[in-house]
Amino acid sequence: RSSYSCSYFVLPCCFFDFHGKYSRRQSKKTQYREYLDFVAQVGFVCGFHVEEDCLRIPSTKRVCLIGKNRTYPHTEHALIDKRITQFIHDRQTCAMVACDGGVGSDQKACSDDICKEEVSELPESTMQPAGRIWLPGFQPRKKVEQTRNCAALPRDFVDDVVLNVANLLLNAVPPESCPNVHGGSTNTWNQGESLSLKEVAEHLNKETLKRLKSEYGGLQTLLKNNHQVFEVLNGRVHIRDWRKEKPSRKTKPEVKRCLSAEAFKTRLCWFFIHHPDGCSLPSESCPYAHGTEELR
């Protein structure tokens, strides 16, 4: 609808209409097939020759629809735009009738006939040409979406939280049961206690918790992002013991199996720097650098 020269490619995935979730109308088709037909119908109404193709991607939703050519000459663009406006308002009214309970419980969406009766004549103000508001009340996503998975938090803030939580887990173990021997043998390396996320949160200050609550997943996401140090299982936080890490059983391609040595030692080992017993692995076995001289 942007212009006559516009063409489009769409890969339908989630089942949404113009004004909310798409409501099924036919039980003889699968939900996916019915939705594909609906998206194709939108293209036809907008005056496109709609083509369908199947992408070579590892997904169950891989049918795409393409509109490259118009079914009408440029001189009829204004007339087709009115038809598109009517179509959008028909779909909007159909959704409003369904939400208001205007149909029976066995039928979640109103039929095309009901839509036509509800919108027999639209006010002139709603018949807006291209270039103006097409759907009042519609709120599109912002052009730049804010990253809220803790990845954009300042590095100093993240490092402080990681160190505080790690010390909390380490200090939870009685000193006599965990001799402090740097270098860490199997019997003496302090893996610390496991605490619930709630218990960990209770030991953090209010300002830190407030900042984490503004992120998706909060404290749990931050700890999972720092998987070198922590392991979060069933709502409990553990210090990761790299001696227990087992290689994946899945058969990997040769390229992934034989990773270049340059893929390792690109970051400092947190345990070598901060853990009282050092790293549980010797330098040659640890994927992280034991000191700046090992960094690549």
Say how many strands there are.
Answer: 8
Oligomer type: single chain
Unreliable parts: 102-130, 177-186
Question: Mean pLDDT across all residues, rounded?
Answer: 80
Which structural class do the helices and strands define?
Answer: alpha+beta
- Main beta sheet, described? 3 strands, antiparallel
The domain tally reads 2
What overall form do the CA principal axes indicate?
elongated
- Counted by DSSP, the helix tally is 9
- Listing every helix as H and every strand as E from the N terminus to the C terminus, the arrangement reads EEEHEEHHHEHHHEEHH
Task: Outline the structure in words.
The protein has helices at residues 31-45, 77-99, 112-118, 155-171, 197-202, 206-213, 218-225, 254-257, 270-274; strands spanning 8-10, 16-17, 20-21, 48-54, 63-70, 195-196, 230-233, 236-239. The chain has 296 residues and is of the alpha+beta class. The chain contains 9 helices and 8 strands. The two termini are 53 Å apart.
Give me some keywords for this one:
296 residues; alpha+beta; 2 domains; three-stranded antiparallel β-sheet; 9 helices; 31% helix; tRNA processing
